Amino acid sequence: MKDRLNKALQREEFFLHFQPQVDILTNRVNGMEALLRWRHPTDGLIPPGEFIPVAEETGLIIPIGEWVLRTACKQNKAWQLAGYAPVTMAVNVSPIQFHQHNFIEIVLDALRDSELDSAYLELEITEGVAMEHVDQVIYKLQALRDIGVQISIDDFGTGFSSLTYLKQFPIHTLKVAREFVRDIPGDPDGAAIVQAIIAMANSLRLKVIAEGVETEEQLSFLQHIGCAEIQGYIFSRPMPEGEIKKMLTPSPA
After folding, report:
1. Sequence ranges of the domains in the chain
2. pLDDT tens per residue, range 2-19
């Protein structure tokens, strides 16, 4: 797998799909999440759950992740140049990527090369990343925020983050993990956790996005408890650029 992954980058076998992040009241697409896909010439599509852990273990996630970042920024800028209203592009960042000594410079280079305004890039990190070397993480997050990049905590609720530290992190968004969304509103414990996360995010003046929303019942419950945005199959599955851009709003003349 390692050799095939290495060749995949060289042979340009990777590509991106995009999943919309949608305003729960207006159905307007406010953002997109860039999701890595791999089509092997003989094996076909390889699930991310199979190759991403290998990429992380071998360190190949560093060049692959940089490719994702650069490609996502260029695509977002291309949509703007094509006359669509600007949206935020969310890009997942692995722990090994985030802790690179030159990570800030890599982000700046991607923004400069694409000519994308930093306000339209959002980097997603997990709670696990946030809780490693907290002082360094806060410093790096603040540096990213200072250049205008949005920061979100992905899969919130699945880790063990301290609320004390959470208050100190210069972040913009909490993403409610799909593990909790999946069983609402029928599961009282899951519903209580989701409601608590959304209430906390609202009180901290953070944007909150519920991931993995698939049913009208889930959507209705989330709307009732004050969730502003959703991401999930109820609106759209991840799709290639040619299909997903149809969901973008034309920029006002």
Report:
1. 21-32+62-247
2. 788 889 988 999 999 999
